[in-house]
Amino acid sequence: MKSQVKQHFGERYKYLTADNAKEAWDLLQELEREGNTVSIIISDWSMPGMNGDEFLRKVHKTYPQIEKVIITGFADQKSIEDLNLEIGPISCLKKPWDEDELISTISHAMPD
Predict the structure, then answer these.
(1) What confidence tens digit (pLDDT) does each residue in 54-87 have?
(2) In this structure, how many other beta carbons lie within 10 angstroms of the beta carbon of residue 31?
(3) What is the mean pLDDT of residues 30-48?
(4) What is the Cα–Cα distance from 23 to 26, expressed in whole angstroms?
(5) Reduced to 3 states, what is the DSSP secondary structure of residue 20?
């Protein structure tokens, strides 16, 4: 995913990845403390330690302005709709994601 995004957007943005929700949360807080603006978070639904829906709820409570995207291969539509109602708007991409859909989703979420 990172290579697909970087190939399309080049050096316009900084791309950071985390292996789990705790690492992502720590990275997010560090970036915000340093004065960096995080525009979008893309989270897998299934992650070690904390599922992506829980993680995005946590992000939303502290950073509601961040655009949120969840990627899933198995979440049911009701769970996705519930998450969207609670913290929406949220984009959802199904695995395997379509590269054009990924790029379009990010393009719409990023500030001009």
Answers:
(1) 999 999 999 999 999 999 988 788 999 999 999 9
(2) 14
(3) 94
(4) 5
(5) coil
Contacts of 2 (CB under 8 A, 6+ apart): 15, 17
Residue 20 has pLDDT above 70, yes or no: yes
Q: Check residue 110 and give its pLDDT.
A: 82
Model-level pTM?
0.91
Q: For tokens 């695995």, name the residue.
A: 95
CA distance 24 to 7: 22
What residue spans of 1-112 are helical by DSSP H?
A: 2-9, 21-33, 52-62, 77-87, 99-109
**CA atoms within 13 Å, Cβ hemisphere of 61:** 6
**DSSP label at residue 98:** P
Phi, psi values for residue 68, rounded to 5°: -125, 135
Sequence-distant (≥ 6) Cβ neighbours of residue 91 within 8 angstroms: 67, 68, 69, 70, 105, 108, 109
Q: Write out the two tokens for 58.
A: 């946590």
